[in-house]
Amino acid sequence: MSTNPSTLHLRELEAFLVLAEELHFGRAGERLYVSQSRVSQLLRSLEGRIGAPLVERTSRRVGLTPLGASFLSSLRPAYEALRATVDEARAAARNAGGVLRIGFQGTVDDHLARAIARFEERHPECATEVVELALSDPFGPVRRKEVDCAVVLLPVAEDDLVLGPVFSRQPQTLALSARHPLAGRESVGAEELAGLRLIGVHDSAPAYWRLAQAPRETPSGLPIPPGPQVNTLQEALSLAAADRGALLLCRSTAAYHAHRASLAYVPVEGLPDSLLGLVLRRGAGPSPAQAFARALAETAPGEEPA
């Protein structure tokens, strides 16, 4: 049976978008809850409709073709607009509750998963969606109302946002190439960061927040050379694996990506612990986001902002 290029299948587009983020068929399948072969099948079908390859596959890596990269830049905003339209229709159909969209950075850890489960038990009329945020834009999706609230790395000092529950205090971990001389160490001291280039975040994020994630000096004042800047966590991990710099992560995010054999994760001693917090738009009335904040406060051990 020939592929009809005029027919759009959203599942194919979704598979391409996830694969473009992960650049790995297995991990894309995990996120889509399908097999690796099903991801490959969906991609081949989409490429058949378009008439040219979107992805380059080798035994070692997956990458976008120039056409694939161009298609991605056009597809993503259109897909987000379509998803927003579906969300609005879903909310109208339910007549109450609507959709709660929760943004997050890094991984959905146990605290967050328990809070979502508690919220859903209390509010079965409200659909819950979890949306991964770009590393370089922790607060923008909340401001633009793309999500209703967001779990982000602290600090947060935005006048138009409210900081809700603070939780998940964890030591920081250094992600670096498995070939790096420090890769085999049980830990590194904060002063040793002066000998590394720390991967940072593009300047769409506030300066104070970027410096907290990639400090420019050690606790004693030694300068830390800046490394390349990134927009996404996947970009940062790929650069670290290529030995282009090192990356500071919270422990749970490091554990989630421990399957990457090209990277090593080493605890850092002497730095402030990482903390997560829930941010909401200031001035909003009673909402599903506030109900979720209560569920999160009940299920996660409370912390005072550092």
Automatic annotation (TrEMBL):
Keywords: DNA-binding, Transcription, Transcription regulation. One of its GO terms (molecular function) is DNA-binding transcription factor activity. It holds the Pfam family HTH_1. One of its GO terms (cellular component) is protein-DNA complex. The keyword tRNA-binding does not apply. Residues 8-65 form the HTH lysR-type domain. The keyword Transcription applies. Belongs to the LysR transcriptional regulatory family. This is LysR-family transcriptional regulatory protein. It comes from Streptomyces laurentii. The lineage of its organism: Bacteria, Bacillati, Actinomycetota, Actinomycetes, Kitasatosporales.
